[in-house]
């Protein structure tokens, strides 16, 4: 039990100094758990698909950055869930846009001055990789910590 408290204390110290690089991988046609952008229009040429996927990735980043969740249902897969929220019995039941909105709101509650800055974005076919610098000052619980 003591070791668990020590790990939590160290993690909280890390969270208070929150400044990490975050990588988002989006595979639009996939049913994987971290799939956020689940919509794909068939019949698009490859360039249009890649441009659309970049647009979707940037909408996701913007939602996290601003906390504006008004258009989340336009780019969130119904199968989406956040692995970190699954440890909470209530949040663990959420899926799709509802879960994504909850994740964004909890991030903004936990971190003062939360900011997501795109460092690079790479696409190939239906895969988008975004490298993002995330900064913020912890002021409350982050998931269950």
In what range is the share of β-strand residues? 15-25%
End-to-end separation = 15 Å
Order of helices and strands: HEHHEE
Largest sheet: 3 strands, antiparallel
**Major sheet: order of its strands?**
1-3-2
Shape: globular
Counted by DSSP, the helix tally is: 3
Count the beta strands: 3
From the helix content, strand content and strand pairing, which structural class follows?
A: alpha+beta
Radius of gyration: 16 Å
Q: What's the CATH class label? A: Alpha Beta
Question: Helicity level, as a percent range?
Answer: 25-40%
CATH names the topology as Nuclear Transport Factor 2, Chain: A
Average of pLDDT: 68
Low-confidence stretches: 1-44
Total number of distinct structural domains: 1
Could you say what the CATH architecture is? Roll
Any key phrases for this structure?
3-stranded antiparallel sheet, alpha+beta, 3 strands, Nuclear Transport Factor 2, Chain: A, 145 residues
């Amino acid at each position: 039990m003591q070791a668990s408290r020590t790990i939590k204390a160290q993690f909280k110290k890390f969270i208070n100094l929150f400044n990490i690089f975050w990588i988002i991988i989006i595979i639009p046609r996939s049913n994987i758990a971290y799939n956020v952008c689940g919509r794909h229009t068939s019949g698009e040429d490859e360039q249009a698909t890649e441009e659309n996927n970049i647009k979707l990735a940037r909408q996701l980043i913007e939602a996290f950055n601003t906390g504006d969740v008004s258009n989340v249902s336009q780019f969130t897969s119904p199968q989406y869930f956040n692995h970190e929220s699954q440890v909470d019995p209530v949040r663990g039941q959420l899926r799709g846009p509802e879960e994504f909105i909850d994740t964004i709101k909890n991030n903004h509650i936990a971190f003062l001055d939360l900011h997501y800055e795109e460092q690079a974005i790479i696409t190939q076919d239906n895969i988008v990789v975004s490298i993002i610098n995330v900064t913020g000052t912890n002021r409350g619980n982050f998931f269950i910590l």
